[in-house]
Amino acid sequence: MSEPIFQNWTNEVNANWGKAPLSIKHRLHEHSLFSLEALEELIETYPREHYALVHMGEQGSPKQSWREGDIGKLSGKQVIEAIAQGRMWIHLFRVGQVDKRYGKLLDEIFEEVDRNLGGYKTFTRLNGIIISSPNAQVYYHFDSAGQSLWQIRGQKRVYLYPTTPPYLTEESLEYVAMYANEVGIKYDPSYEQAATEFLLEPGTMMHWPLYTPHRVENLDCLNISMTTEYWTEHIRRRQMVNLANGILREKVGIPPKSTATSGAGFWAKAALQAGVRRSGLLKKAQKSKRPIEFKLDPRRPGGIIDLAAAAE
Fold first, then answer.
1. In the predicted model, is pLDDT for residue 38 greater than 80?
2. pLDDT tens-digit profile of 292-307?
3. Domain boundaries, the chain
4. Which CATH class is domain 11-232+290-306?
């Protein structure tokens, strides 16, 4: 894009980046890469191993209900129509790696962030595209990497929660570092009393402090969003400490006392977690991939075919 991607980057954004929730205007909803035609073509050629199609429970239900499916032989247009009339979402993972055009855009975004902040070095940057149904929801969770959410089409409400107990605990940080299950952390409806609500519309992005718990509810319209994920040296070190502390607490029985990311204690933990990761001991405990339980029904937009029932 010839013009800046961010429209209202201010000194206040500079002062609060990574410290407070930020809502910033952007131009990506006007980009040709996010037209329905472009996304339909992208879906039709997308590698199976790089997307997840998920059918979910009704909005407002605190009980997590996710079933993973397959788009089958439907066209990109049929897939988007099915999502528009169903209760599901498709997540195109690693879109910048799969399609170099989206990778170039991702680089442009972080080059602009780096310039605006006067030096903000990031690595292992990823972006994904999420197309989700009217009234769809994403359950309470937090992300281990730096994260931003870019609204392209439709409207959604984002609910952010404090990064202090009981909303976020050291045990939950350690659990996610060990088992890579962000939505497996505890949620209680009473948490809503402390939630801060934001409305995302096309041309709005949100960035929040590291590990901020959040959940998302679509309004009654098809939603298209892009996520951007990144790491910094500080985030990488926090992840190493969280993993080491989880090993100490769960495997050794020693409650950790520090989350410091420098000093002798940090380097000892860095060595501990590196050794455990190399040993492969945690791989067996990490969550398994969800089985493919349904495919989209080509005769009923929004409908699904249960593969177990179809096999009987």
1. yes
2. 888 898 888 888 888 8
3. 11-232+290-306
4. mainly beta
